[in-house]
Amino acid sequence: MSFEAILFDCDGVLVDSELITNRVLHAMLNESGWVLSEDDCMQIFIGKTVRSETARIEAETGQPLTDAWMTEFYERRNVRLRAELVAIDGALQAVQAVHPMLGGKIAVASGADKPKVLMQLEKVGMLAYFGDWVFSGHDLPRTKPWPDVYLAAAAAVGVAPERCLVIEDSVPGLTAGVRAGATVWGYCPQVGAHSTPQQLLDAGAACVFDNMADLPRLLAQANASY
């Protein structure tokens, strides 16, 4: 069965945003009374929403996770992203190449809030390739690791999940793609990865690759084998 669409995660797959966001979150949690390291913060929150860890945040800080706190987090995060964000190496070229290969049937299915995803894609010059096919787990009943956002993206591009290829870099996201019924390839760069290749394979990745620039070639090889 050949792939007729690609559904991309955003953070860590298309844009190099995770360290920037984590530093803001880490600083705000420490300011609120939860003293933890940047590495521990990354391991706890990678591939998840902040609100998915509400109970733990409230237990560690001794105060409620309020809408005002989240609004400040979003504002501080977005300032840093606008100033510092760059694309993942090779990602823009990969998107530009696979777009015509698949007749434009590519989408973004992120666990992050949609305004952030749109802002990031626009900043790195990718938004035009996805058009209206940008989806956020925040807008659905359940976010990753549940499959809802990938099912929504597959429905929008008009391709059965079984014929979609998902590109993910985190275990929660990869789990969501597998639960949707898609084939998932794990992206695990040699530097800066937050999961090991084995962790991605154990979560259900069909394969793992370390250079986003290789995606068009890998897609062509996969489709030629059917």
Kindly list the characteristics that best describe this protein.
six-stranded parallel sheet, globular, Rossmann fold, 226 residues, alpha/beta, 6 strands, 11 helices, DNA polymerase, domain 1, 2 domains
Mean pLDDT: 96
H/E topology pattern: EHHHHHEHHEHEHEHEH
List the strand order in the largest sheet.
3-2-1-4-5-6
Q: Give the distance, in angstroms, between the N- and C-terminal Cα atoms.
A: 6 Å
What's the β-strand tally? 6
Flag low-confidence runs. none
The CATH C-level name of the largest domain is Alpha Beta
The secondary-structure class comes to alpha/beta
Radius of gyration: 17 Å
Q: What is the CATH topology classification name of the largest domain?
A: Rossmann fold
CATH superfamily of the largest domain, please? HAD superfamily/HAD-like
Largest sheet: 6 strands, parallel
Helix content: 40-55%
- Strand coverage percent: 5-15%
Quickly count the helices.
11
Number of domains: 2
Gross morphology is globular
SSE topology:
Elements: E1 5-8, H1 18-31, H2 38-45, H3 54-61, H4 67-84, H5 91-101, E2 106-110, H6 114-123, H7 127-130, E3 134-136, H8 148-157, E4 164-168, H9 171-180, E5 183-187, H10 197-202, E6 207-209, H11 215-224
Parallel strand pairs: 1-2, 1-4, 2-3, 4-5, 5-6
Helix pairs in contact: 1-2, 1-4, 4-6, 5-11
Would you give an account of this structure?
The chain is of the alpha/beta class and 226 residues long. It has 2 domains: 5-16 and 86-224, HAD superfamily/HAD-like (Rossmann fold, 3-Layer(aba) Sandwich), CATH 3.40.50.1000; 18-84, Orthogonal Bundle (DNA polymerase, domain 1), CATH 1.10.150. 48% of the residues lie in helices and 11% in strands. The protein contains 11 helices and 6 strands. The protein has helices at residues 18-31, 38-45, 54-61, 67-84, 91-101, 114-123, 127-130, 148-157, 171-180, 197-202, 215-224, and strands at residues 5-8, 106-110, 134-136, 164-168, 183-187, 207-209. It has a 6-stranded parallel β-sheet with strand order 3-2-1-4-5-6, with helices on both faces. Helix 9 (171-180) links the parallel strand 4 (164-168) and strand 5. Helix 1 (18-31) packs across helix 2 (38-45), helix 1 (18-31) packs antiparallel against helix 4 (67-84) and helix 5 runs parallel beside helix 11 (215-224). The protein starts with a strand and ends with a helix.
